[in-house]
Design goal:
- The chain is about 5% helix and about 50% strand.
- It has about 270 residues and is mainly beta.
- It has two domains: about 100 residues, no CATH class; about 120 residues, Tachylectin-2, Chain A (5 Propeller), CATH 2.115.10.20.
- The strands form five sheets. Strands 13, 14, 15, 16, 17, 18 and 22 form a seven-stranded antiparallel beta sheet that branches.
- A hairpin with a 6-residue loop joins strand 3 and strand 4.
- The protein is globular, with a radius of gyration of 17 Å.
């Protein structure tokens, strides 16, 4: 799921519709004030190829100019890949196929070029050596990616098992605000953390939260299809307040808010 402002008091939200419309598609939800949503029953992103045989999930939206770039996980017998689609109006959509091969998840595309290139956070899953952690990748055209660089190793008890991208990075005066997820080793409980990346060189982590900014504790977060999970794909900043939408136990959608200044002050400076 991802909610993105699209004009004054208007937001769009893309998600699988779950029990209401269990079709494996991504649907568009609309809202005036970001709380009460109306779903369009017509699928917006419909699985229509072999690599989407089991459905499309975890959409993230990055607005660049007048175009919304939607990357999502495509699930099939071949594994999980990341695909890209674009729209200008949330009515018409164009698919561009897979941009990362299996298994590369939690892709978050930065909302502007940095040094003349596009960047994205990615999370490959090693099968033998190494941990599942966030990497950075660069591209000239948003379709072909390379220059993979590790960015954030799991370093705290709450993300000791793995970490990965969450919301699309938000530009602030202090750096790129990244709200990301992690899972612990003891119970596989998911939490959300925060870090800052350098504005000019996003390979550099300049600050990070030692403790989660959000963790699964409410009944709708601890009980559900996938218990003990809070997982965000989208957030935005308005008037100094961060609005983060997230899934609870893979069953419900929820909203958390945080004062940006307090969030930044809670982080440990690394550079």
């Amino acid at each position: 799921m991802h909610v993105i402002p699209a004009g004054r008091n208007c937001h769009f939200y893309i998600s699988r519709a779950g029990d209401a419309l269990p079709d494996g598609c991504q649907h568009v939800y609309s809202t005036l004030h970001g709380v009460h949503f109306t779903v369009d029953e017509a699928p917006f992103i419909r699985p229509d190829c072999e690599l989407e045989g089991f459905g499309a999930e975890d959409a993230r939206i990055t607005q660049i100019g007048d175009t919304y770039y939607i990357n999502y996980t495509a699930v099939s017998i071949h594994g999980i890949t990341t695909a890209l689609a674009t729209t200008k109006d949330f009515v018409h959509v164009e698919k561009h196929g897979s941009i990362f091969v299996t298994e590369n998840r939690d892709v978050c595309i930065f909302p502007e070029k940095i040094g003349g290139r596009y960047f994205a956070l990615v999370r490959p899953v090693p099968r033998q050596i190494g941990q599942a952690k966030m990497w950075l990748s660069a591209s000239e055209d948003l379709l072909h990616w390379g220059e993979f660089t590790p960015v954030a190793m799991p370093r705290f008890p709450w993300d000791a098992a793995r970490n990965g991208g969450g919301a699309v990075p938000i530009r602030t005066d202090a750096g790129w605000l990244v709200l990301y997820h992690g899972a612990d080793r003891e119970s596989n409980r998911y939490s959300m953390g925060a870090m800052l990346l350098d504005l000019e060189d996003p390979r550099k982590v300049v600050a990070i939260s030692r403790e989660p900014v959000l963790y699964a504790e409410a009944p709708y977060e601890t009980t559900g299809f996938y218990p003990n999970v809070v997982f965000s794909c989208g957030a935005f900043l308005v008037d100094g307040v961060v609005h983060m939408y997230y899934g609870g136990a893979d069953r419900v959608m929820a909203l958390a808010r945080a004062d940006l200044r307090q969030l930044l002050d809670s982080m440990e400076r690394l550079a």
